[in-house]
DNA sequence: GGCGATGATTGTAA
DNA sequence: TTACAATCATCGCC
């Protein structure tokens, strides 16, 4: 302490009070009757003031108060404080100042980015987030998943609210504390040398402290979001059986394309839309179905018969309707949206193909797979309904399209969905190849 | 609780 | 990338 005092005294003794005219010309009267007309006199003057400042703690309270008041009123005080501030700037504070130039914290940036991506920070978008929407889309888009999705969104909104409330609190506290400290320092600057720069620096320190608290808040929020997200994703992992209707649609497609049960991307998309599941779920379903069908054809016989009959009934109705339309000389009249809604040309093709398939020329490799698959269905359905039996290995149904290795022939995938349930406007011809 | 059915995942091959 | 095959994990029925 004494060393510091000596250093300051020494510094002051030789200093030119930059920016403050303590040298000749000011005409300042000596504080204690000293005649300070030359440099030595002024030095002595400043020395006295400093001595009084340094020894103020040794005095009684009243004495100190009186001295303090005297010093405060001293006309040299601003200049002296200015010099002290300058010295402070040039010594310790400048070192601290260099340390303050922190680069942006990468961790904080990561946290900010994540909070923004999750929809916690940034502009509110209906309380949800893109991540939640994507997660919900991946979940399959069913009713259950939308319940989970809304639950996820509600929880995320809760996190968001807590985050913003806490953030607001921190900011308010930071501002209050900053104002308080600034006032305090301004107040103190009357009795000790504090430059505006120093106040500014102090404000910076306070802000940094508060931003570190904010970072903790952000980190906690991120953790909460991660936990919520993982729980949500875990919930999605739970297997849920598809709806009966969805399974029927998929089965109908499968058995009506048995010779080539590989739906194209478009077909998958259409099936996904119809079944309210995702395309990947359609792919999974077909993958599972193919393998399980192949492994145990016998087991699926009944199912195949069922769907074939269903398809045939639908087709028969369509044909009947078409014939009726034809007889009524109104071939372009569409069906009125009933289940028997195949268009005439398609149904006609099916029957023609079926007739050709009854003959000896029935070769999967020779006939377009889609045509063949429709032939499968119709022939099978007819066999079931009218006792048709072509003497194939399986009395009711034959997986003739499976090759020797138990795999399907590598036929091109159909371009679109052909479902017996489709309306007149949405029938896609599988015979187009 | 056992068991079959079924949707999802993973590793591999083409 | 896609399909296959094996496997896992859960569902739903008994």
From TrEMBL:
Residues in the DNA-binding region annotation: 235-297
UniProt-listed CDD domains: homeodomain
Signal sequence segment: none
Keywords: DNA-binding, Homeobox, Nucleus, Transcription, Transcription regulation
Chain intervals for the UniProt region annotation (Disordered): 21-41, 392-433
Biased composition (Basic and acidic residues): 32-41
Superkingdom to which the source organism belongs: Eukaryota
Principal place of residence: nucleus
Domain PBC residues, every copy: 41-234
One CC-aspect GO term: nucleus
GO MF term (any one): DNA binding
SMART domains xref list: HOX
UniProt record similarity statement: Belongs to the TALE/PBX homeobox family.
Protein name in UniProt: Pre-B-cell leukemia transcription factor 3-like isoform X4
Species name: Salvelinus namaycush
């Amino acid at each position: 302490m004494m060393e510091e005092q000596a250093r300051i005294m020494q510094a002051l003794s030789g200093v030119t009070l930059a920016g403050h005219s303590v040298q000749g010309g000011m005409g300042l009267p000596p504080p204690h009757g000293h005649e300070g007309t030359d440099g030595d006199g002024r030095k002595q003057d400043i020395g006295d003031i400093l001595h009084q400042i340094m020894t103020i703690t040794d005095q009684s309270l009243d004495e100190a108060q009186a001295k303090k008041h005297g010093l405060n009123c001293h006309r040299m005080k601003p200049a002296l404080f200015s010099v002290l501030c300058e010295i402070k700037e040039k010594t310790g504070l400048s070192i601290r100042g260099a340390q303050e130039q922190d680069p942006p914290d990468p961790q904080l940036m990561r946290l900010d980015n994540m909070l923004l991506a999750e929809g916690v920070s940034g502009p509110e978008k209906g309380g949800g987030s893109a991540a939640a929407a994507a997660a919900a889309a991946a979940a399959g888009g069913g009713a259950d998943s939308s319940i989970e999705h809304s639950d996820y969104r509600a929880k995320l909104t809760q996190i968001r609210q807590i985050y913003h409330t806490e953030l607001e609190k921190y900011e308010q506290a930071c501002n209050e504390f900053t104002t308080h400290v600034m006032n305090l320092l301004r107040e103190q600057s009357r009795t000790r040398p504090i430059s505006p720069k120093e106040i500014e620096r102090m404000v910076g320190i306070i802000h940094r402290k508060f931003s570190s608290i904010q970072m903790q808040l952000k980190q906690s929020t991120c953790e909460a979001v991660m936990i919520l997200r993982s729980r949500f994703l875990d919930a999605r992992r739970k297997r849920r059986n598809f709806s009966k209707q969805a399974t029927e649609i998929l089965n109908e497609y499968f058995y009506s394309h048995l010779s080539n049960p590989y739906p194209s991307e478009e077909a998958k998309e259409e099936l996904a839309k119809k079944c309210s599941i995702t395309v990947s779920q359609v792919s999974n379903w077909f993958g599972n179905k193919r393998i399980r069908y192949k492994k145990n054809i016998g087991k699926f016989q009944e199912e195949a018969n069922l769907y074939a009959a269903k398809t045939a009934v639908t087709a028969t109705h369509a044909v009947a309707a078409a014939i009726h339309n034809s007889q009524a000389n109104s071939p372009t009249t569409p069906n009125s949206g009933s289940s028997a809604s195949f268009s005439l040309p398609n149904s006609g093709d099916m029957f023609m193909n079926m007739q050709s398939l009854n003959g000896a020329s029935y070769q999967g490799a020779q006939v377009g797979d889609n045509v063949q698959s429709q032939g499968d269905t119709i022939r099978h359905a007819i066999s079931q309904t009218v006792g048709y039996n072509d003497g194939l290995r399986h009395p009711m149904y034959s997986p003739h399209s499976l090759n020797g290795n138990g795999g399907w022939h590598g036929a091109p995938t159909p371009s679109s969905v052909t479902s017996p349930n489709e309306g007149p406007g949405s029938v896609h011809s599988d015979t187009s190849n």
